[in-house]
Amino acid sequence: MKTSVKLLAAVLLVSTFSFGQDITRKIDSIIKDNYQKNPNVGISVGFIQNNKEFYTSYGKLNAESKTEINKNSIFEIASITKILTTNLIAQAALENKLKLEDYIDNYLPKEYVLNENLKNKIRISDLASHQSGLPDIDFAKLIELNPQQPISNVTEQTLTTLINNCTELKDYGKYRYSTIGFTLLGQILEKVYGKSYDEIIREKIINPVHMTHTLTEDFDVKNRTVGHNPDGGIQEFIKWNITSPAGLVKSNATDMVKYLKAILNKETTVGKAALVTEKTFYKVDNRELGLGINIDNDDKTTLYMKSGDSMGQSCIICYNRAKNWGIIILLDKRDSKIRSNLLDTITEKVMQ
């Protein structure tokens, strides 16, 4: 009887190992095929399943470099930063620093003076689920002013003027993607903790998760990739400023897999906060949102995901809590089509 049990355990172990190898082989094949079709787009991918990690990458750090992109190469994670910010908001809620249903009025810096029509109207969860109705930054205009560093023209005064001059919310309660909403979330965090956003994210996510290569203000490192705009031109990494909570963190596949591991573990502080962000705060037609994260439900499974596009790079993160896997895809060119197609192919052909 003991021999049979041991034999069964051994068979299960071999089967699990073979299954894992099969998944990673298929993922690598998909990524390699994409690189062969798009040799000018460097890529780094990290995958985790049941705490086992897998990485693959293709391309060079830049056109002149002989150095290969690898799992430690630094990319802009762009709007994936938003799920870090909402994780911090959820942590603050769990610490009773705030309530998600609280109105934002008393949490904003004193420079903001909300119009009477806006008072006791916008909740913290509205900011985090893109339904506040507040006006947003005019990116098209900013790009015209400075195509390499468009955010450089956004200041505290810019934001306070924009908010203070708002007399009516546009489509409150309806989805409208918002950079300013997440900038305000960063300022709310700064007020409740009495520290800078940079200090908060380091103290509550970067350091405890041991994300040793996740960068904020200083990203002048040798293993940094070079960004490329949709036309293939070189694009600078965007410098840290007041809008950072909405999309200016830099990281790599290794650290983002560490983050995935943390959020998939319900016992970690980050994992407990992630469960809060995964609750549905907006659902209309085929769009369902948690706090900063998209929820993709079907009859078989639930995927949580967030994409990001900087001026010169694209990325996407996705995880399945029920099946305990997650993936991060990082591209050194702004190409939302490639990153979305890669995720769709992997989830449909490999992870179903």
TrEMBL record:
Residues 1-20 form the signal peptide. Keywords: Hydrolase, Signal. InterPro entries: Beta-lactam-related, Beta-lactam/transpept-like, Beta-lactamase-like_AB/R. GO terms for molecular function: hydrolase activity. It comes from the Bacteria. Pfam families: Beta-lactamase. Residues 30-336 form the Beta-lactamase-related domain. Belongs to the beta-lactamase family. This is Class A beta-lactamase-related serine hydrolase.
